[in-house]
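ok trying again, last paste got cut off:
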Amino acid sequence: MKIFYAAASPFVRKCLVVAHELGLRERIELVPASAHPINRSAPIVAHNPLGQMPTLLADDGTVLYDSRVICEYLNSLGDGRIVPATGAERWQALIEQSLADGIMDAAVLVRYEQVVRPEPLRWPEWINGQLDKVHSALARIELEAPTFGGRVDIGTIAIGCALGYLDLRFAALAWRERHPASAAWFARFDARASMSATRP
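nice, full thing came through this time. structure:
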């Protein structure tokens, strides 16, 4: 298998953490790429018309995107424990993944606004609106973090990758100061081999 890859992408990282946890990482070749919102990557677009990372090329020629689909696919190749199959556990994990993906979506949009958009065209209210999503989601995670325990599933993996991305690109948010339960959980989760191996 091959995956279009950038070390800083939290969505790529989510897929690679899943692969590590399932013992599949050695089967995936990393293909360095850059998914720019304006100067779109021709190699990615050739496989994924959206031109986004992650894009996974399966051994049978199937092209999979986005990160949610790729993680489901990897789960099907492994022992199936990362995405619960049924019941309340499944919905909890998928909702947590959606919440974490929302943090990553909003943070990436802010990053594009601050780095890609020319400075005279930047929209402070847009940035604040996206960061408000991040803060609201962090508040929800803070309420739930004490219940995470030692769970390792698509929900906690996605949350871990979202918090890691905030550390990477938005250290000034100092999210740990207002969210001590999340910080305590993340300190333990971030020490996992899968997280260490994928840290940008």
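cool. Residues 133 and 174 are 16 Å apart (CA to CA). The chain has two domains: 2-77, 87-198.
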